[in-house]
Design a protein that fits this description.
Blueprint lengths: L2 H6 L7 H8 L8 E6 L1 H4 L6 H12 L4 E5 L21 H7 L15 H6 L6 E2 L7 E5 L2 H5 L13 H7 L3 E5 L9 H8 L4 E10 L2 E10 L6 H11 L3 E5 L2 E7 H15 L5
Parallel strand pairs: 1-2, 1-5
Antiparallel strand pairs: 2-4, 3-4, 5-9, 6-7, 8-9
Length: 270
């Protein structure tokens, strides 16, 4: 959404104090919180994404932790690209020249303005997966991101496994289950995806290499259906943050439910 339209849709500027007041309704103090955010849904914020990040940090306190997906989906096999596709004649050049993933400099892709700013925020740690990294800041940040296996990228030895074990919270701000990266962990547990070859550029002992590996062909196509089914069985806390419809979910509860739902509703490919 264009900024002019966000301003038009906002009666009064959204301040950090307003955001903290709204976030405090979710009782996030000392929690580990995985966030999915639509910045424009909140309304026009005085200070923009930086103000929201500061409000999130204050809402969890210095004993809490904020986590965001910081995926770099363009560091992937260009033969699979669809938005936009590239000519077949380009592929070999791209395999040979695409920059290797770097935790400090590689930008996010299609993750939103907040996640892109968050990965560079002072004190933030970022995991080393070249395609699907996570970033975190706070008391448990290093524990969350320090291990991120190349494959399975959403399985054990990944930030999602740590979030599951530590019983983190998931907070949607103006977003919904179709953005829920956590549910890829349920896909991993349920083994309901076909496997496919993935490839990307990474650093190996300081040298760029193009690496290929086998992992699941993850999909979020039915994540919204999982969420709607979950809310029929669980009381989900829903509030408004700024102007954005928002909700807080227990990470482990959703994953356990989602794993069971996938086993019952998706054809299983082991």
């Amino acid at each position: 959404m264009k900024e002019s339209q966000v301003i038009k849709n906002t009666a009064h500027p959204i301040t950090k104090a307003r955001l903290i007041k709204d976030l405090n309704k979710l009782n996030l103090k000392n929690e580990i919180v995985l966030t999915h955010i639509s910045l424009s849904s909140i309304g026009w914020i005085s200070g923009g994404a930086i103000t929201l990040i500061q409000a999130l940090l204050e809402s969890v306190s210095n004993k809490g932790t904020i986590v965001m997906p910081t995926q770099s989906g363009d560091n992937s096999d260009p033969a699979d690209w669809e938005n936009p596709p590239v000519p077949i004649a380009w592929l070999q050049t791209l395999y040979e020249t695409m920059p290797a993933y770097d935790v400090l400099s590689t930008p996010t892709r299609n993750m939103g303005k907040t996640a892109e700013l968050f990965r560079t925020y002072p004190g933030v740690y970022r995991s080393n997966h070249p395609m699907v990294s996570f970033a975190a800041i706070g008391d448990d940040a290093n524990a969350v991101i320090k291990n991120h296996a190349l494959t399975p990228m959403f399985g054990h030895q990944t930030p999602l496994d740590v979030l599951y074990q530590k019983r983190a919270k998931i907070v949607f701000i103006g977003t919904d289950y179709d953005t829920c990266t956590a549910l890829h962990y349920a896909e991993y547990l349920a083994k309901t995806c076909e496997k496919k070859k993935h490839s990307c550029a990474r650093l190996n002992n300081g040298q760029r290499e193009w690496v290929s590996f086998t992992d699941y062909d993850y999909t979020a196509d039915d994540f919204q259906a999982i969420g709607l089914a979950y809310e029929k069985t669980k009381a989900v806390e829903t509030i408004t943050i700024g102007q954005a419809k928002s909700k807080c979910i227990d990470f482990r509860d959703l994953i356990d439910f989602g794993t069971d739902w996938l086993l019952k509703n998706r054809q299983t490919h082991k």
